């Protein structure tokens, strides 16, 4: 891959996964969806920016720092992925077959399942942020960044190894990414994780990947594959899982 195409892939990934003002150029989206390695790179950059408020854990009250991190996450990442959590919540509680659940995912009406799913996800992130705020600054930042990288690595795995349930955003990734593209990416990220062992960040990263497995498994079983909403939900759920696993690891290691 040429340097120019790699830069276009990163720019496309930043534009899709965050609210950072990178602009848009022809070819960015195409380069991104054929370059799954761009996912964790953006996770590293965006996760580092969102973790800045955690540097104040030794000077400000823990709830204030936690709120700052929560606002920073949505300020940097945006809230559009939360829509996937809402749609997944409605699909989880609906009665019916696979086609009925797919219809609910496409429905713009907000049901009780959506409200509950979003509320639990945001509350879980806030509580995880409060846990981070009780740690030393470097440990808190390391866990937050590792969780974001792990989340994006999991999304790359979905793109390379997953199967789209129907035409849409999910297929935009799955039809252009191959399992072979994920192998070197996973090796590099896992090697970096090994270098940080036994720090909690090394546990937060696979914890985030494990969190993504939950919506991925459910969608394969009940929808016949993944779609754009599952990508969005996985992005939010993976982050929450990674942060909580990292905080738990800190208390045990």
TrEMBL record:
It is a multi-pass membrane protein. It is found in: Cell membrane. Its main location: membrane. It comes from the Archaea. It catalyses: alpha-ribazole 5'-phosphate + adenosylcob(III)inamide-GDP = adenosylcob(III)alamin 5'-phosphate + GMP + H(+); alpha-ribazole + adenosylcob(III)inamide-GDP = adenosylcob(III)alamin + GMP + H(+). The keyword Transit peptide does not apply. GO terms for biological process: cobalamin biosynthetic process. The chain crosses the membrane at residues 37-57, 110-132, 138-166, 178-195, 201-218. Its EC number is 2.7.8.26. One of its GO terms (cellular component) is plasma membrane. Keywords: Cell membrane, Cobalamin biosynthesis, Magnesium, Membrane, Transferase, Transmembrane, Transmembrane helix. Its cofactor is Mg(2+). GO terms for molecular function: adenosylcobinamide-GDP ribazoletransferase activity; cobalamin 5'-phosphate synthase activity. Joins adenosylcobinamide-GDP and alpha-ribazole to generate adenosylcobalamin (Ado-cobalamin). Also synthesizes adenosylcobalamin 5'-phosphate from adenosylcobinamide-GDP and alpha-ribazole 5'-phosphate. This is Adenosylcobinamide-GDP ribazoletransferase.
């Amino acid at each position: 891959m040429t340097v120019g195409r790699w830069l276009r892939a990163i720019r496309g990934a930043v534009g899709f996964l965050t609210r950072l003002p990178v602009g848009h150029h022809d070819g960015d989206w195409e380069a991104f969806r054929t370059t799954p390695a761009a996912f964790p790179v953006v996770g590293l950059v965006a996760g580092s920016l969102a973790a800045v408020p955690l540097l104040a854990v030794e000077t400000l009250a823990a709830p204030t720092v936690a709120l700052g991190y929560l606002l920073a996450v949505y300020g940097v990442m945006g809230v559009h992925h939360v829509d996937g959590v809402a749609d997944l919540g409605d699909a989880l509680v609906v009665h019916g077959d696979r086609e009925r659940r797919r219809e609910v995912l496409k429905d713009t009406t907000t049901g009780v399942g959506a409200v509950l799913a979003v509320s639990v996800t945001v509350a879980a992130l806030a509580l995880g942020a409060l846990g981070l705020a009780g740690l030393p600054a470097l440990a808190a930042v390391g866990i937050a960044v590792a969780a974001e990288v792990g989340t994006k690595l999991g999304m790359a795995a979905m793109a390379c190894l997953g199967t789209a349930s129907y035409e849409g955003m999910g297929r935009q990734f799955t039809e252009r990414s191959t399992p072979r593209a994920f192998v070197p990416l996973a090796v590099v990220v896992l090697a970096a994780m090994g270098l940080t062992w036994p720090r909690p960040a090394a546990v937060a990263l696979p914890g985030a990947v494990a969190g993504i497995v939950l919506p991925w498994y459910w969608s394969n079983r009940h929808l016949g594959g993944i779609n754009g909403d599952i990508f969005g939900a996985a992005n939010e759920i993976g982050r929450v899982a990674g942060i909580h696993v990292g905080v738990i690891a800190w208390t045990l290691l």
